Amino acid sequence: MTLDILRMPFPNKALQCYVLMSIWILLLVAGIYKFLETKQVSPEPTLATELFHNLAIDVRTKRIFKICNFPNDITGGDEGIILSKKWTLKGLIILLRHGDRGPLQYVRNISAVNCGGSPSEHLNSYKKYLQNLTSYEKISWSTPGSFHGFPLLPIHPTQCQLGQLTMQGIHQHLTLGGILRQSYLEVWPRLKNLSHYDITVYSTRYRRTFQSALAFLRNFLPHEILTKIPIYESQSMNFCFKDCGCPATEKLTKYVMKWLNHQLKSHPAVAILSESTGRSLFSPGAEQGRLGSDPQSVRDALLTYICHSSSLPCETPFNCIKRQNVAGIFAYTDWLNHQKWKDPHWRRLCLLRSYGLIRHIVQQMLHIVSSSGPFFVLYSGHDHTIEQLTTTLGIQNDPLLLRFAARIVFEVYQENRDIPNNEATGVYFRVLSNGKDVTRQITFCKNVLALENKVVLCRIEDIVRFLHDDYFSSLNVTNFKDAC
């Protein structure tokens, strides 16, 4: 019929164009109506039984799995590569993010997700070790104190409990501890003979950070001293110690939240995607509207399924989370984190929240180089801890920075002159983020010392000067009290 109409003679070209345009609009509307029709004759295959790991076909989707940081994917990096008589590795300071955990909010089909991970000799050996400890020895962490009564392992070996470490998370830190031990054994002989007096460990008061620290220490340190090491509680996720109270951070947090909301409103397609994904993702009683309007919350919850090779949930049999939805959420949040890294309010917020931790790290560096110890310091924290510290140091945004079982390592070195008594002439440090040397990126390391193999060192004098003279210069004040 359409062709017959087109063949009919028209008195002028204008009328012919009008008729053609009208027919085209009618066809377009009919097509859209058909597309939006709720009753589908032949629906797309749902993802209710399709595992997300089948998606790993291109660079973007493969990168999503790297955030999970599966135990078999954890490898050594540039840690401990300075092996020279000119340098002595004096000590280590390590900041960890906890391992794989359950979701922070209630999500659909959580009982069907297996968070136990793959069986391994590491896990079996560690379980037997802890069983023997609790049977025959008195453990400092089980005595009255901050972590009294904390289980040493996840209570349910296969379940994904809300906010709790999984057995996969335990496996990650056992693997990481063993890998870093091998990286440092040759360059840092002291590691073989460390006593509990040489070690200080801090953890936030969460089971997931406490259990992550234990698993890491088990394979990093000599086994015989593990039970003697005291683990101190940090009352803040920021490890702020004595420099915690800061009213200005509340105002800056509001600015950052306002900026984040503005970014989302500027991307309405992402807002719709996040909301629709959230409806299929979060349980009906879990404030779907509020959580679905936050792409970061959606991203975090999605990892529960992605990191455990589980099928993605559905709101209805024909309304499941699609693979392209997942890729879209991760692409937006990666972009958002990169933009946030450049936002002045965010940088000021990180500056204030990280002050106590950086001050404490500098104190530990000075203890290390003065040979008074401790010589190994561990902070077991969270993604926020790492994100704020690296932002303050000027380390560039990296989409994989905040992976589960992420690590930031400070190596403290002393230069040795080839003169009588092996006199020390300088003290330096380098920083590694998930095995990558990022010392050059640190804003206050202006005159780095270049060694072989593109290795660089920053003077401890530079970080001391930054802390005492320049830390608050961007805020036009000179101390923490005035900045807050």
Secondary structure layout:
Elements: H1 2-7, H2 13-36, H3 59-68, E1 87-97, H4 121-136, H5 167-184, E2 199-204, H6 207-220, E3 231-234, H7 248-265, H8 268-281, H9 288-292, H10 295-306, E4 314-316, E5 319-320, H11 323-342, H12 344-369, E6 376-381, H13 383-393, E7 407-416, E8 424-433, E9 436-437, E10 449-450, E11 456-459, H14 460-470, H15 480-483
Parallel strand pairs: 1-6, 2-3, 2-6
Antiparallel strand pairs: 1-7, 4-5, 7-8, 8-9, 8-11, 10-11
Helix-and-strand structural type: alpha/beta
Count of strand segments:
11
Specify Rg, calculated over alpha carbons.
27 Å
What letter string, H or E per element, gives the SSE order? Answer: HHHEHHEHEHHHHEEHHEHEEEEEHH
| N-C termini distance | 76 Å
Give an account of the 3D structure.
With 484 residues, the chain is of the alpha/beta class. The protein has helices spanning 2-7, 13-36, 59-68, 121-136, 167-184, 207-220, 248-265, 268-281, 288-292, 295-306, 323-342, 344-369, 383-393, 460-470, 480-483; strands at 87-97, 199-204, 231-234, 314-316, 319-320, 376-381, 407-416, 424-433, 436-437, 449-450, 456-459. The strands form 2 sheets. Strands 1, 2, 3, 6, 7, 8, 9, 10 and 11 form a 9-stranded mixed sheet that branches. A two-stranded antiparallel sheet has the order 4-5. A hairpin with a 2-residue loop joins β4 (314-316) and β5. α7 crosses α12 (344-369) and α8 packs across α10. The longest helix is centred in the C-terminal third of the chain and has 26 residues, at 344-369. The radius of gyration is 27 Å and the shape is globular. The termini are far apart.
